[in-house]
Design brief:
Layout (H helix, E strand, L loop, with lengths): L4 E2 L17 H13 L16 E6 L9 H17 L9 E6 L8 H10 L4 E4 L3 H13 L3 E4 L18 E3 L4 H14 L4 E7 L2 H16 L3 E8 L7 H8 L5 E5 L4 H10 L9 E3 L24 E5 L5 H10 L9 H18 L4 H5 L10 E3 L2 H9 L4 E3 L16 E9 L5 E10 L1
């Protein structure tokens, strides 16, 4: 494992823009927020029912099911820590679990209805950007908060979702992952890259970001080919990649990776023929004892990127107490922090309703006294202090659109058994 380093390579101006921290406007917003949370008689009366309820809309099934266990564990551990520290507004918080599935199954809307009917003030999820886009309006219009630990599409910072609302995420947008992956390709000497990606909000956005950053640094994209979310065959796309004359392949996929890789191998452009790169959607274990195995050695040397800082050993140990069968930790820290941030926002607001929490989420992630646990942060809030929660996933520092303004991206590499190991962490600002 190497030391964390700053994002050094040149990226497009639209890709990496330094965010001004502690500006006059930010200080004015904090003052306004603090005034809005004043507990004097002029403050609005709480609109919640006094009991903070979390709903988990995370993938128990579907193409991202490998992300479900660490995300559920992160939520469960956060709820445990909050309640051991006295809960929120004098009451234990509770968690109701739902399955987000994927866009193919289409179960998220019905599962969301059940979570809302159960009184969820904050819904943690979904993991898939495409799934989130199918339920975001339903959740926000209900007055609840939607807080994703894994959405990376830039769509949530654009258009109707650009203004402050009830949507937040602890994962950085693909602006950062796209820049880091492009930098990695350039550093590895790749000059003519083929990109094969899912045709959905996640795949299209990430492919565009990788392409823009590669071209900005003088490399070329030989071909960008998309396949449908429900595709059963990838013959034409694989043929295009094979005929492109590329010196590297970027595969932006989910669980269909186990079907695509053998076809790339058959076409002579597999990972042992041409250097191959994955992203967070498919950087999972493909060992023979995993649910979707590939023959040993298939992915050896393949690299991938996953948003998030290094998961600390003590945090992993605590997650294992919640789920002893846990084998992967992707987005566990982001899930944990989404819950803690929401709870701290409820404490600062003095109100457990989603709309009230949404008004304080950005506030508790920057500009105040640094603190790193719910117990310590809530104690500071009780003393009337502003706080800046730094979590297990990093500094967080959410911006006005509800997305992180700074984050880390991990670079991973596969061994001969098709297991991944982190080799570096790149920090960058968005």
């Amino acid at each position: 494992m190497t030391n964390t380093m700053r994002l050094a390579a040149v990226a497009t101006a639209s890709a990496l823009v330094l965010s001004a921290c502690g500006s006059d406007d930010g200080d004015k917003k904090k003052d306004d927020d603090k005034a809005g949370s004043d507990t004097s008689s002029s403050a609005p009366a709480p609109t919640g029912d006094g009991k903070l309820v979390f709903g988990s809309l995370l993938p128990a099934t579907g193409s991202l099911a490998f992300l479900g266990p660490p995300e559920f564990a992160g939520v469960d551990l956060a709820v445990k820590d909050i309640n051991e520290a006295g809960g929120v507004l004098g009451e234990d918080v509770t968690n109701v679990k739902g399955d987000s599935g994927d866009t193919d199954s289409g179960i998220a809307p019905a599962e969301t209805d059940q979570l809302l009917d159960a009184g969820s003030d904050v819904i943690i999820g979904a993991a898939s950007s495409g799934v989130s886009l199918t339920v975001i309006d339903k959740i926000m219009s209900s007055g609840s908060v939607m807080f994703s630990p894994a959405n990376t599409s830039t769509a949530f910072d654009e258009g109707d979702y650009a203004d402050p609302d009830n949507y937040f995420r602890t994962a950085p947008s693909d602006i950062l992952q796209g820049a880091v992956l492009a930098n990695l390709l350039v550093q590895d000497g790749r000059k003519n890259v083929a990109i094969m990606a899912r045709q959905d909000a996640y795949g299209e956005t990430l492919a565009e970001q990788v392409k823009a950053n590669l071209e900005a640094q003088g490399s070329e994209v030989a071909v960008t080919v998309y396949y449908g979310e429900k595709a059963q065959s990838f013959d034409s796309q694989v043929a295009e990649v094979a005929g492109a004359g590329a010196d590297a392949v970027v595969l932006i996929a989910f669980e269909e990776t186990t079907s695509i890789i053998p076809q790339l191998i058959q076409a002579g452009v597999g990972p042992q023929d041409i250097p191959t790169y994955f992203v967070d959607g498919n950087t999972a274990s493909y060992a023979q004892d995993a649910s979707a195995p590939l023959p040993p050695g298939t992915l050896e040397g393949t690299k991938g990127t996953i948003p998030g800082a290094e998961t600390a050993d003590d945090f992993k140990a605590r997650l294992l107490e919640v789920d002893p069968d846990l084998k992967d930790y992707a987005y566990s820290a982001e899930s944990y922090d989404a819950v803690i941030v929401s709870a701290l926002a409820a404490v600062e607001a003095g109100d457990d309703s989603g709309d009230a929490i949404a008004q304080h989420i950005v506030d508790v992630t920057g500009g105040g006294t640094k603190c790193t646990s719910f117990a310590d942060c809530s104690a500071l809030l009780a003393d009337g202090e502003d706080i800046d929660y730094d979590g297990v996933s990093g500094p967080i520092e959410l911006g006005d659109t509800g997305s992180p303004t700074a984050a880390s991206i991990g670079i991973y590499e596969y061994d001969k058994d098709n297991n991944i190991t982190p080799v570096d962490y790149i920090a960058g600002q968005i």
